[in-house]
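User: quick one - fold this with NAP bound?
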Amino acid sequence: MDDLAIIGSGPAGYTAGIYAGRANLKPVLFEGLESGGQLMLTTDVENYPGFDEGIMGPEMMQVFKKQAERFGTKILTETVNKIEKIQEGFKLTTSKDTYEFKSVIISSGASANWLGVKGEKELQGYGVSACATCDGFFFKDKNVIVVGGGDSAMEESLFLTKFAKKVTVVHRRDEFRASKIMQERVLNHEQIEVAWNKEVTEIKGDKQVSSVILKDSNSNEEEEKEIDGVFVAIGHTPNVEFLDGFVELDEKGYIKTGFTSSTSTSMSGVFASGDVADSIYRQAVTAAGTGCQAAIDAERWLEN
Ligand code: NAP
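Assistant: Sure. Structure tokens for the protein plus NAP:
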């Protein structure tokens, strides 16, 4: 039985691999069928310390992967579909095989919810984003829309006013669900306007976003609005379906941690790091930080 499985190949999973590899745990990392996590959907990453000139998201994940492999992390291109408790450890069932491990780190991430409209996927990284902190800087003096009416949409809009000339919040109803204080900040901000009762039905652009089609939720009338960027802020979903109740989740559906150590879960020997256990920060650097913590926690747990 191997010591440690790591599920997920974002900054958290690879960092756990680097640390566990250097601790000689010979970790096996299940990267899924698409490696690299959410950073594969971004272009420049300029806020990760150590890259003073910035780095492309996918390139950064290649560097993380190489570094984990250098210290002996074995990477399998398989998706874990099930985890079960067995005597002395855990059984993982993947798309190809079954494996047994003494301990597990879950770093399966979260996925931004997308609108699913025409043009959205094609223009991701070219004006369509789900992360203002990551991509807001590229919209200096531009006009952008933020889709959503929750706290994330309010936060993204306020953040974007630091760069964009004008921010339009597009919301499908006539009231926000965001907290009152956040709503007030948005409604009182001179650079922000709100398009109430509007849904984005299409994002247009040739290699870069140029406009959106907005449909009125009441009249169904459509209009085209010229725009430079579209920020989708309609929530994130942690990737926990495959766990099927194996560990406790918090009230928002993220893995609950902090039982016996920072990254420990409700199941002894199972740890969680990165966005799957973080509904608040959701940054590459914080995910990497908790990946490091999970590897150290797993190492100590195995020693005991
Ligand atoms: P959320 O509260 O679930 O809000 C999602 C918003 O997106 C809602 O306004 C919803 O519209 C809209 N939406 C959902 N699907 C849509 C679709 N297909 N098309 C158009 N609009 C759609 O998500 P969130 O804003 O990410 O917040 C998640 C949690 O984190 C919340 O508990 C929030 O309070 C918390 N959070 C807190 C802070 C903070 O305190 N600083 C910051 C960010 C997030 P409807 O309203 O019509 O359903």
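One thing worth noting: The chain has a mean pLDDT of 95.
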